[in-house]
Design goal:
The chain is α+β, with helices and mostly antiparallel strands. It contains two helices and three strands, in the order E-E-E-H-H. The protein has a single domain (10-76), classed as Ubiquitin-like (UB roll) (Roll). It has a three-stranded antiparallel β-sheet, with helices on one face. Mean pLDDT is 86; it is low at 73-80.
Length: 80
């Protein structure tokens, strides 16, 4: 497999993944990935992408509940 950016050789390894969405942060330190030995670009396989998407769905669901139950929001009547 070749990197689409630099045509370097891809090797199996681990890569960090970080994302912020709707005021929440997801940080994964070692996600299985294909890594370019030349430029360091990381590609995740479908299985890993689906797991990350599942985690994001759970985080979003719980963050909405936390916001709805927030005492600050109830007291101030504001969107927190």
């Amino acid at each position: 497999m070749k990197c689409i950016y630099c045509q370097g050789t891809m090797e199996r390894g681990f890569s960090p993944f970080h994302i912020s969405r709707k005021g929440c942060h997801l940080s994964l330190n070692e996600v299985p990935a294909w890594l370019c030995g030349q430029c360091g670009e990381a590609y995740f396989e479908e299985k890993e992408v689906e797991l990350i998407q599942d985690m994001l769905r759970v985080i979003e669901e719980h963050s909405e509940r936390m916001k709805a139950d927030s005492p600050i929001q109830q007291i101030c009547g504001a969107n927190v």
